[in-house]
Structure formats: C-alpha cells, structure tokens
Design a protein that fits this description.
The chain is an alpha/beta fold. It has one domain: Peptidoglycan recognition protein-like (Lysozyme-like), CATH 3.40.80. Helix content is 18%, strand content 17%. It has 4 helices and 10 strands, in the order E-E-E-H-E-E-E-E-E-E-H-E-H-H. It has helices at residues 53-58, 133-149, 161-164, 178-187; strands spanning 18-19, 25-27, 36-42, 82-84, 90-92, 98-100, 107-108, 111-112, 118-124, 158-160. The strands form 3 sheets. A 6-stranded mixed β-sheet has the order 1-5-4-9-3-10. It has a two-stranded antiparallel sheet with strand order 2-6. Strand 4 and strand 5 (90-92) form a beta hairpin. Helix 2 packs across helix 4. It is globular and about 45 Å long. The two termini are 24 Å apart.
Length: 206
C-alpha cells in the first residue's frame, strides 16, 4: 500500500475518494451490520477501459445511444460502493452505511442477499486482463480502511462476485490476484482466509 491511510467518516464516506452519489441504493435492514467485502470486475463497453461509461452507468446517467451494447443494460439499476479505475483513481457512489445494489441474488456463509451486509468494490477490468499495480495498491488501502471501521469483517469477510453468485457471475475472474491482495492485507495487519466457492459444474468460482 502507498500514500496516506484512508479513513471512513461517521457518515460512511471514505477520505480520498471522489464522491459521485448514485440513486441505486437504499437503507440496510435493521441490525444487518457489515461483515463482507465483495470484489467485482467491470468494463464498459465490455473489454474497453478508460471511458466515462462505468461512472455514468453506476450513477444512472448512461447515454444508451452512445454504444449498441448499452441498450442491453438500459434497465439495470446497479452501483457498488466503490470503483477503482485502471490508474488507481477511486470513486465512491454509495455511503458504506447504506445498501448499494451491487451483488444481486447471492449467498455467503449461510446468509442470502449479500447486499444487506456487504460493501461492493468494482475494479475496472475483465476476467482475463491482469489488473494493475495501481489498482491493487488502492484496493489494499480501501480494504484496510473498511476493516478498521467495521470490525465485523472477519477472516472470511472477503469474496469475489463469483464466490457469492457461483454459476451466475465470474468476476473479478482468473486475472485477479487473490494471493496478492491477501498478502497485502496480512502486511497491514488484517488476515483473511479465502476459499473460492465452487460452481455447479465443479469449477471454482473465480
């Protein structure tokens, strides 16, 4: 990790993140708490990086006419809490105190509907394109800040979208280096034990 330590304020906003408020969120159920961080991968259009489209999509401002693919996702109302671009820039769309609509139908550690108790972090990338050093550095800082603020995030509190929705989702994909992230977090004093969920066909969910 590099740079000054990030901190979450009392309203659930992370210092150092550019705030872009999304309408794709609501209140968490009473008593749900936060015990899980979910890593996603995203690119818009698929396989393309660097444009304004991911931010526009998550904030409900996507111009459907800008690309043929966008008509396929026009009805979706999706947003993570955080988004990390290829160059490590960090955006926050939803307060961590609120429920962002990032996971869809999902299950983790015997609990359904992971949106209720998780924080979603989208990484700009694809399943088979290596993520960047800048992204891993930024991600480690975000995860450390979340673990500091939410002590309910334990050693099993880190998963990929593919782990909580196996067979339905594949991101962040084989290109994501889980060993690197777990090692980074151990150096920061946060120990995670991650066992990938298996898909219905027997393959691991990453």
């Amino acid at each position: 990790m590099s740079g000054a330590a990030m901190t979450v304020d009392a309203e659930g906003w992370l210092r150092g993140a550019r705030r872009v408020v999304s309408p794709h969120a609501d209140e968490r159920p009473p008593g749900a708490g936060v015990s899980l961080i979910v890593i996603h991968g995203v690119s818009l259009p698929p396989g393309e990086f660097g444009g304004p489209w991911v931010e526009a999509f998550f904030s409900g401002r996507l111009d459907i006419a800008a690309h043929p693919y966008f008509s396929e996702i026009a009805s979706l109302r999706v947003a993570p809490h955080f988004y990390i671009t290829r160059d490590g820039a960090l955006l926050q769309f939803v307060s961590t105190e609120r429920r962002a609509w990032h996971a869809g139908h999902s299950r983790w550690e015997g609990r359904d509907e992971c949106n209720d108790f998780s924080i979603g972090i989208e990484m700009e990338g694809t399943d088979d394109t290596p993520y960047t050093t800048a992204q891993y550095d930024r991600l480690a800082g975000v995860v450390a800040a979340l673990c500091e603020y939410y002590p309910g995030i334990g050693e099993r509190g880190l998963a990929g979208h593919s782990d909580i929705a196996p067979g339905r989702k594949t991101d962040p994909g084989p290109a994501f280096d889980w060993e690197r992230l777990v090692s980074d977090m151990a150096h920061a004093g946060y120990n995670f034990h991650r066992t990938p969920t298996k898909n219905p066909d027997g393959d691991t969910g990453t």
